[in-house]
Amino acid sequence: MRELTVAAALENAGRSILRRSVSGEPRGVLCAMGVCFECRMDIGGVPHRRACMEMEGSRRPAVDPREQVDEVECDVAVVGAGPAGIAAACRAAEAGARTVLLDENPAPGGQIHRHLPGQPAPEGARAWLERLAASGAELRSGWSVVDADAAAESSSPRFRFRLFAEDDGALLSVRASRVVLATGARELFLPFPGWTLPGVMGAGGAQAMAKMGADFRGRSAVVAGSGPLLLPVAAYLEKAGAEVALVAEQAGLLGLARFAAELSLFPGKLLEAARYRGGFFPAPYRTGTWIAQAHGRERVEAVTLTDGRDDFTLDCDLAAVGYGLVPNAELARLLGCETDRGAVVADTSQETSVPGVFAAGEPCGVAGLDNAIAEGEIAGLAAAGRLDNETGTAEVRRLSRARARGRRLAAAMESVFRPRAELAAAVRADTIVCRCEDVRLSSIARAAGAREAKLATRAGMGPCQGRVCGPALEFLFGWDSDTVRPPLKPAALGSLAMMTEDSA
Amino acid sequence: MPAPDVLVVGAGIVGAACAEALTAAGLSVEILESRFAGGGATAAAMGHVVVMDDSEAQFALTSLSRRLWVEMAPEIPRDCEDEETGTLWIAEDEEERTHVRRKAAFYRQRGVEVEELSGEDVARAEPSLRPGLAGALRVPGDRVLYPVNAARWLLERAVARGAVRREGVEAVAIFGRRVQTRQGSLEAGAVVNACGVAAPLLTPGLPIAPRKGHLVITDRYPGFCRHQLVELGYLKSAHTPSPESVAFNLQPRATGQMLLGSSREFVGLDPSINRRIRARMLRRALEFSPALARLSALRTWVGFRPATPDNLPLVGRWDASPGLFVAAGHEGLGITTAPATGRLVADAILGRQSPIDPAPYAPTRSFPPADHAHA
């Protein structure tokens, strides 16, 4: 049998309803990246497991609450094994630093190079993964960092930082002198009527499902939302055998034209985009168009799209909808790093406002693959104490140029693909905004801020901890998200019971 | 706008209950809240409505208050998650079993329904507890509710009777019948300081100190336990003025979530999560219910109980400042005792006879010499 995730296996078996929500609605996969917890179900006798993160048939023996904590000490701990984290870990380990790379997913590569464990990695990731294997960095896959702290700078112990990672009841304590946060980004989901129907997934979510073994052959798909991800996602789905009826980009043509002009600065990007465009040539691409509603009883059967004047409805059994990306800044915020409009603030050596904590790639603002690698390399060198020696070398100049290009691109994307205000008008009073707790817009709208809404209506109180509804509430009401508290992701109580000061 | 009869400062559950009782008595009320209603210690609280037996005064206040909650129960809206779960006070060994008998006698003599459970009864009633426990005292009338929404509901009842709610208005000083806020000065016939741990900032001299507690909540596991489960040693934890203590205290929420406490620390208003004491608290819980280890924990938070030297709240006239009344210092029992506190405050302001003797709660009573490490 081919290896695949539980979520993909169920999708292939025709089961798209994975659970019933707290008010009894059918729910299926949304993010497919372990963020939204919509796909949680009883797996191997353990309730609330994420079907998108569990391998079918692996059925790990249930871990008994151990009295023992797995402990690691290192010079550099890197969190997140996407392009930035892999680059950082390679650079740090190659510079002689004892390096540990922690990642929540079953296999390294991040969202862009997501692949099944045991399967060959995608071509773009292979060289880096080989380099990682040769670097001496220790990769720990399947570990979710749930808590972290920093000793006072004045106390200056050898290992100032401690990370706690959790895996189904097992606990890993990592002490480190430096930390690199390469925690990536998640999709921005904005509510619309019907968005909770199974079959409505993230754009990146649908792609992640396909990468993890979902068979979309013969499926009729609409790809919608915003950002440069929509085209590659549509191309990927077509290649996987789905029929893409439409790609709908909410951004207007004018902004896109300006963005394309900006892109000409980056010929590689332009080629890439053209290739994707060619790859699914039959699918029409409409700008200034967005989903107003998804229809269906137990799963999506059609979507109504609008350009603000005219509405039209398309039949589909897969709606891949994402409005761009949101930096994963929770761990940075827990460590006390300064953020600006949701992105971690870092200096030219990628060091955050907390000395010894570096951040690279999307957490610092969504800027894409090349930038993530460049920032990861800089952060890895800096965390290993090598950046100062290398400053001025051709190598570091190259990395700095790549970063500058990436950040320019990020700024252009930010302004072109910012969700238009009309998207908020699609949300009705009875539209669910918090999917974990089924909280509707009308109840949330009575509160004056995210914390009040959370306490009075439960919005953001569920297992995704506001990662889905938080950015939506920011878009709808301009509210800042509530305080970050450990555990950063749900963790077994037994693990928290092992987090004592003397255990590590 | 004419000055109201009473200005209540603080819209936690205690202030909300005061506003509710005062408007029920026909008084005009304004209520000030620096943030939003129920957002302070109320939001951090467990919401266990429980009759306590640690002193006659505590019993009188908690049993009156539980009765008031029961009387309101038919009107309490669903989002307050009010449920009559009952309490199991759990005896670990034979020695604690004798405490169960003593406790049972205390409640029965005062007309509170209780049931003594054997070890086998406990195992049947709560299968997720470890086998071999010695027994328990079941108090079937105790309840659980969701504190934030309960406070907001009490406040809405007051507002429905004409009370004026001002959220986002921070009081900075109280001078008898006048309250200075950041936005200006307000006057009333009487003022109630219901600011919990912040009460001494407005009324210097109130013997209230923050006593920090941690809670952990899990995902939904309906039926994991049915009663609020509390170890008999809880009172020792709550009343020993040691700098730090933990006790097993597990609550089934109406959502199916498990809410787990409790810890007590005197560390000022440090809002950080103390992993060490949280681990101690969880390990204590795992001794009673090893199955908890596999449950998925969603969140941890801390709150600050307004603690007093004799474990009783400060309710009544503050003689040093004519026109000022105090309703604060409820430690970990604010949700239970809010309705009775509201009644006592209304009686004090109106000069009415109270259903229980208010003297033990008088803010001006004498206290045992301070023995808190922090004091």
Distance between the termini of chain A: 41 Å
Q: With helices defined by DSSP (H or I, 4 residues minimum), what is the helix count of chain B?
A: 10
Mean pLDDT of chain A: 91
Q: State the shape of chain B.
A: globular
Most residues in contact, chain pair and counts = A-B, 33 and 37 residues
How many strand elements of chain B?
19
Percent helix among the residues of chain B? 25-40%
Report on the architecture of this protein.
The complex is a heterodimer of chains A (504) and B (375). Chain A has 504 residues and is an alpha/beta fold. Chain A is 30% helix and 23% strand. In chain A, strands 5, 6, 7, 8, 9, 10 and 23 form a 7-stranded mixed beta sheet that branches. Chain A has a 5-stranded parallel beta sheet with strand order 12-19-13-14-15. In chain A, helix 5 links the parallel strand 13 (220-225) and strand 14 (243-249). The longest helix of chain A is centred in the C-terminal third of the chain and has 23 residues, at 394-416. The two termini of chain A are 41 Å apart. The model of chain A has no long low-confidence stretch (mean pLDDT 91). By secondary structure, chain B is an alpha/beta fold. Chain B has an 8-stranded mixed beta sheet. In chain B, strands 8-2-1-12-19-18 form a 6-stranded mixed beta sheet, with helices on one face. In chain B, helix 1 (13-24) links the parallel strand 1 (6-9) and strand 2. Strand 26 (491-492) of chain A pairs antiparallel with strand 17 (296-307) of chain B.
Essential attributes:
heterodimer; A: 504 residues; alpha/beta; seven-stranded mixed sheet; 23% strand; globular; B: 375 residues; eight-stranded mixed sheet
Give a summary of the structure in a few sentences.
The complex is a heterodimer of chains A (504) and B (375). In chain A, 30% of the residues lie in helices and 23% in strands. With 504 residues, chain A is an alpha/beta fold.
